[in-house]
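Weekly modeling sync, notes
Attendees: S.R. (lead), two postdocs, one rotation student

Agenda item 3: backlog of single-chain predictions. S.R. asked that every request posted to the team notebook include the full sequence so nobody has to chase files. The rotation student volunteered to paste the first one in as an example of the format we agreed on. Action items at the bottom.

Example entry:
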Amino acid sequence: MKTISKYIMVLFAIIAFASCEKDGDKLYLSPLEDTDLIATSQNVRLSSDQAKQVVLSFAWTGQSLTVNDPNYSVPNILTTTMLVSTSEDLTNAIESHETSNSKAYTTQELNTLTKNLGLDPDVATPLYFCVKYAVSQNTAPVYSNVVEVNITPYFIDMRYANLLDANQEDMNRTFFSENEDGIYKGFMGAAAWSNYYLKEGDGTLWGNVGEGGKEFFLSSDDTDGARWNMWYPGMTGCYYSTVNTGKQVWSTIYIPTLTISGDLEGEMTYDRPNNRWIYIFSTDKSGLNVTIKGTGKEYNTLTACDDELAEDKNVGFSGDSQNLEFGENALEIYVQVTESGEQTLVLDLNSADAFKLYTESGATAPEEVSWALWISGQDDGFEGGSWNFDSYLRLYNEDSKAYSGVFNINSQWGYKFYTEPDWGANILGKDEGNSESGSLKEWGDNIDAPEPGIYMVNASLSAMNYQTYKIEEVTVEGLNDNWGISYPMTETETPGVYTMTAEINNGCGWGFQFLINWNWDLVYGGSDGTLYFKGDNVKYDDSMIGGTYTFTLDLINGTYSIQ
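Predicted structure, as returned to the notebook:
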């Protein structure tokens, strides 16, 4: 009998039986029963503006397996498969494994299915659905009835892929696949360590493999933790990226400078918010012949984000001024000049399928974002305190004009922000809000003062808002390459200064971070003793392994030390 049980539980025989010496010891698996499949609709017209809406559902009769002896149980060895085909005999059906007795299709899922089956867009075409139950390859499966549904799909444009931010919201930027082969290319004005997801026309969402060191390996697996957003290296500027979904890898070229030669000579300026390079000049010519080239750094699966491993790459432009080609070679390009006098030559990289070179009348230099936002009034409660320009928030995100700083706040009347250290500069005060958060406006009221203490203050000039966070706890995360252990820091007698002692016993390839209040939106990285809010992880020298070190953090002055 032990042998019989073993075969049932381990080998999962389909009509499992093993025999002792008596006929009564034979065990039989119950046969599969007929199953009924029903659909919520027989006619479905798909629309791209309802991509996430459920438009077609199926339900079917469940199955269960038993044996003729109640003393034995049968493991869950039954498989359920949905078959979808363009023919009623289910020839060349697409199969999907199911784990319940129902299935719901969203517009996007169903439209992708029709594309994979070769249906023409905007044409009502019958698809045939059927459920198959099976126990093993050695037994005949049981099929449900076949349900016919007429489906009218819409056109899926696989030439373009949208870029999404960390919250999977559209960034209004695209990459282009010239041959519709899953290889997408395009320029991006990226901040240091900024990131994105790539969404294909059929709805497939790509990020990088959710493992350390896999920054340039792609994954579309939506299982929790299996897919991370793809991020750029630690330099802000112009990047040209290639995303190959077929090989499931991507790469990017950082382009720090471009030079122009020919009828114009000089170095172009990158206008990152507008994703274009510009060059200001004066001429009385009606046209110019110019060559544009530079040297970039390529990051890929072999280099990861290591600047020292990044490969030098010659880059340049060629072709017609209204349909430029980007590659390793630079050829002479002719561009018309519409007016005489001061002009701006524009290398426009926004249209992923057609880069352009043209002139604009006048000088259109890119907007410069200030490196600091001054704060005044936050410390006038201290003896001898007064409104001054001794303190400022430092820029950490150029795209959103976002600033951050840590201050020892003791304020009688609240405080305001200044775009320059000048009483006549643009003054930003409270529109609506309280001491914790609110909206900003020019010449607004004083921002409410919190209770005295050490606070992080953040402000965005794009969103025109502010937030404050009282610093309750500071920890070191990732030390010894172990992100499961937090090292609490102790506040010293000096306001805003924290310290911690720990043994370094392991390498730290990923570095470590300083975490505020257990909030992963409030983290500091840094290098060479300088802290950067949401910056790159702090690294240390592997030669330090085997020693005990004191970590000191000064949040107000933005410095750290390891001794």
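Discussion: group reviewed the output briefly. The two ends are 69 Å apart (CA to CA).
Action items: rotation student to repeat for the remaining queue; S.R. to check formatting next week.
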